[in-house]
Sequence to fold (206 residues):
Amino acid sequence: MRKSKCIVVISLIICSLCICVYAENITGLQEQSSELAEQLNESNNRLQAVQDELSQNMQQLQEVNAQIASSEEEINVINIQVDELMQQIEENEQKLQNTQKEYDDLQDVLNARLIAMYKAPKLQNLEVLLKSKSFSNFLSNYYLLKQLIEYDTNLLETAKKQKEEIETTKLVLAEKKKQIVIDKQTQQKKTQVLANIKTMREYYIS
Fold:
């Protein structure tokens, strides 16, 4: 009987120990589970932050790409303007050269006419008319003198117009050359801005 009691006591002790060990294992597992859940939640939060940042970078990258396209288009337009201005300058310089030559030749003719008029007697034209042998000869001489006067007048008028054309062409050339300088400066600035934007794009891509 006493032996039986000992066995029962021993069994109870063993059961108590098993229950304590089981309870400790359960508690440990619960703690590990809580830690894992916390780590998983933290990882999810970090993943969400990374996804948000990636989304922002993608949006900024799209904006940068749009800026690059716009800047490249602006530079292309400036290049076209510069090419057109260069062509216009070349045409105007050729026009100026031709007009200047015509003007110089006309000046030689005018100078020759002025020298001839200076050397001629002051009443030469009147004498020519008075020495006419007949009325028809008078009319013929008058017509010739009139044509000569009109010729001189036209020479002067043409010289005046060519002189004005030369001055106008010079002004146009000066303005176009000035505009080319401005356009090239703008082109350099926009090219630098474009390079900076492309560097920014590489940053967002990375």
